[in-house]
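Full entry
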Amino acid sequence: MEKRNWWNYISNRIFVFVASILLFCILQIIIQCILFFRGEAPLWHIVVLSIFMMGFIAAFWFWIVRPYRRTQMTMQRILDGYILPDRRLFEEEMLTPVMEAEIGRLEQVLKSPEMMDLNKRQAQYLALQNQINPHFLYNTLESIRGEALIAGMDNIADMTEALAKFFRYTITKVENLVSVEEELDNCETYFLIQQYRFGSRLKLHILYEEENRENIMNCRIPKLTLQPVLENSIIHGTELKIGTGNLTIRFELTDKRLIIRISDDGVGMDEQTLAKLNRQLGRGGKALAECGEKKGGIALVNVNNRIHLLFGEEYGMHVYSIRGKGTDVEVTLPIVTV
């Protein structure tokens, strides 16, 4: 269905009324200018009419156009599948009491136990449905591993086993959240596969305060949060540099947040590229749809948007980078242990 321009949502009668007033003001200013040059009217008539017209335009823009546009943006985010924000944050966007009542009713429906249960069942069904074909893939990998062991090719057998383990984790864990320990185990499996390609050129370091180890490992985070970032660090960072590349995953606990920083000492990125990436990460709504998936793995905006959907937009990713020095990706999450 063709999208209508947002101007079409403003009543034609309001538009005609405003246009008529503006046309009247313009005609009066022209007439007063003619009379002024003839010496038949004072200058202040023109000044007053001009100020009135500018004030009217400003009032029309701030009191009519902007509220309509804010409302449209809020409704678009709801249509894109995002949960309703705190109603206090967009009370000014409620154009009428009827609209406020409609939003309240919609909020009740979307947050009802029945709707939440339906969404969960649908997500689980889709996840189980998507497992059917990939199972054939890792079963085939297990067969290849068996043949490699028989032939005495231990390296091929080990690499095939790591790849099968990686795919098994990806397609069998249907829940949204996994423990940090499980996610790290998957990262180490992925890194093992990469080491068959890069050898000793690539090193992985995992850092945390030893006294917080148990609490950190028990934290729940969205599945496939760390591995896509690690993959991006290798492909766009350490792979492009000469010499050894170091990757570091650092965990930090605060009172309410788990902060994860994935760092590399690769080639980094320039300020323009960095600013563009952080704009995409901060856009929320349509960033994932427009950016899609990057070559070589899940895009960072994919991971960032899943964090937004699960925990809200106060959490997510931010990237720091210096050209020639490396890149840090900081992931901020709430502390969830159940």
Observations:
- The CA atoms of residues 108 and 276 lie 37 Å apart.
- Strands lie at 177-179, 202-207, 220-222, 245-253, 257-264, 316-322, 326-334.
